[in-house]
Amino acid sequence: xxxxxxxxxxxxxxxxxxxxxxxxxxxxxxxxxxxxxxxxxxxxxxxxxxxxxxxxxxxxxxxxxxxxxxxx
Length: 72
What we know:
Blueprint (H helix, E strand, L loop, with lengths): L1 H10 L3 H9 L3 H14 L3 H27 L2
């Protein structure tokens, strides 16, 4: 069970961990909120989650792309 939890926490996009760090809330509580909200609203928070994941990945990509340019 611990391996499954570790795989989910590290393998997922990291949106909940990012917001947990920013807000000072445990990431597991934010994940529970997303799960409950998804069931209550028939999946619409998944669109928000995926768009946040896209923005976070794009930001990481751009930081990696721009870092050599900053060294000039």
